[in-house]
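Hi W., the P-hydroxybenzoic acid complex you wanted:
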Amino acid sequence: MTKTIRTSVCIIGSGPGGLLLSQLLAGQGIETVLIDRQDEAHIEGRIRAGVLEQGTVDALEEAGVAERLHREGLQHDGFELAFDGDRHRIDLQALTGCSVTVYGQTEVTRDLFASRHQQAQQFFFNAQDVRPVSLKSDRPEVHFVCDGRPYIVSCDFVAGCDGFHGVSRQAIPQDVLRTFERVYPFGWLGILVDRPPASHELIYANHARGFALASMRSETRSRYYVQCGVGDTVDDWSDERFWEEFAARLGPDAARGLQTGPSFEKSIAPLRSFVAEPMRYGRLFLAGDAAHIVPPTGAKGLNLAVADVRLLARALSEHYTNHNDHYIETYSETVLRRVWKVERFSWQLSNLMHQFPENTAFEKRMQRAEFDYLCSSEAASRTIAENYVGLPLE
Ligand code: FAS
Ligand code: PHB
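Structure:
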């Protein structure tokens, strides 16, 4: 027996994008239902982003979930780029007047779940066969099965926040959807280790042996990455091999502060740049990884999802509160303009900081020349800084 549920906005995907959208809409008295194919523990357990733009912090404050973030987050006024051991600090504060906050996506997701539960949000976890239908009608539906029972959510709007491998983007007809993609010829191997960070700020390093990133989650927990082969598995990377490569790529100066130890999380992420257009089809709106992917080099994935959600929450709130559909009608055009600028920055920094198998000696010299130019030009450093702290919402 199918159970039908009626709500205003049905959100597919309960990652940071879907959770924040639900939280922001709830603040405007707009009811939502959240559907996810995983359970809460799995969603919270995913180790992903680590750096929040000021705009993301602002959104979490507006959503009323920034208290722990302010208590435990680490404010960073700069970060470093290193090239074969030479280091250059991008002084975010001096160049832009802004900072970033180091606070893991896991914590953001945990804070959002806690608040949604406090407000008795209706969730469906472990949902199967999720299908958004009738998207061109004024009463779209989302069909799914949960605990063996079929459900239909009848709603005004559907928000596709279900990530790169979700179903929402697939619901846009092939003759409407346009996709753009660049797959990088390497991945990132990431570890977590309970040791103090090698440096108090992030260091992105390009070395002849490959890219490395020294990041952190707290003053006692570090998050480190090395560029790895696109076909590598975690079994190819013992801790010993990781530490040897990581220290070599960071360079002797930066590696001086490195404290090695046993990793307790190790995973590999593929790198791609991807955009799907349009981000609206009828009453379906895409937000976050459902519509775009950036290589993590620019620390933009989570922040871009948050920016989409802020614009989508505004569009939906204006519809319900002021019967004004201007932001609904312009959502896709507005959000994509910013998405492409962030894609550009993430692609540019990835090209600068990684060793590409197909690069000739000339391209390697161009990378070094770009780094040397950054070191010598405040204007060049400012362009990196203003993208890293986050572009204006529109
Ligand atoms: P998410 O992918 O977080 O959430 C989508 C949700 O939809 C998931 O909970 C999923 O279970 C659910 N879903 C999927 N299909 C569904 C279906 N059919 N029905 C119902 N639910 C469905 N960003 C950074 O800034 N820095 C990083 O270092 C970084 N590392 C990353 C590493 C990996 C392995 C990955 C995959 C991403 C990484 N990202 C990183 C990007 C990441 O942080 C995303 O940008 C962020 O999670 C986007 O949030 P959402 O759009 O909510 O999508
Ligand atoms: C992280 O801490 O996970 C992190 C930080 C910056 C990035 C990517 C990942 O660019």
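The two ends are 46 Å apart (CA to CA).

W.
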